[in-house]
Design a protein that fits this description.
Elements (H helix, E strand, L loop, with lengths): L1 E7 L2 H9 L4 E9 L8 H5 L6 E8 L6 H10 L8 E2 L2 E2 L5 E5 L2 H14 L10 E4 L3 E3 L7 H4 L5
Parallel strand pairs: 6-7
Antiparallel strand pairs: 1-3, 1-6, 2-3, 2-8, 4-5
Helix pairs in contact: 3-4
Length: 151
């Protein structure tokens, strides 16, 4: 199993989208890209921890490629809006790819470059090394399933 970590706005919808992809074995909502250890949702929402809401994906590269994951990432959010997705505004909603190795970095940067022409505006997606990942509180995991929202 390999890992991928993406921030594409509120993690509830991002998690639900990646769970549908064949070859994805696990999706965990959480926080990455910040400086405060073990942040809570409330702390992240202040914008002072530097974290983004992200999903960490465990996937089988024999069934789904990292490029496939990147393709879905670009499809499910607007990577041209800085620190916002739809009505959600703040640094925690930024577009980000946190790579886990050199190969992912190359693929992420290439994918960002190739995708830039599709949106008509510059892509503001952050591409950075994956460092600490903190799972979100349990009530955020599989949130749409818990509230009975069809996904």
């Amino acid at each position: 199993m390999k890992k991928a970590t993406f921030g594409a706005g509120c993690f509830w919808g991002v998690e639900a989208a990646f769970r549908k992809l064949e070859g994805v074995l696990s999706v965990t909502s959480g926080y990455a890209g910040g400086t405060h250890p073990n942040p809570t949702y409330e702390e992240v929402c202040t914008g002072r921890t530097g974290h983004a809401e992200v999903v960490q994906i465990g996937y089988d590269p024999g069934h789904v490629s990292y490029d496939d994951l990147l393709g879905l990432f670009w499809k499910i959010h607007d990577p041209t809006t800085l620190n916002r997705q739809g009505p959600d505004v703040g640094t925690q909603y930024r577009s980000a790819i946190f790579f886990h190795d050199d190969e992912q970095e190359v693929q992420a940067r290439r994918s960002k470059e190739v995708s830039s022409g599709r949106f008509g505006r510059p892509i503001v997606t952050e591409v950075a090394p994956a460092e600490a990942f903190y799972p979100a509180e349990d009530y955020h995991q599989r949130y749409f399933e818990k509230i009975g929202h069809a996904v």
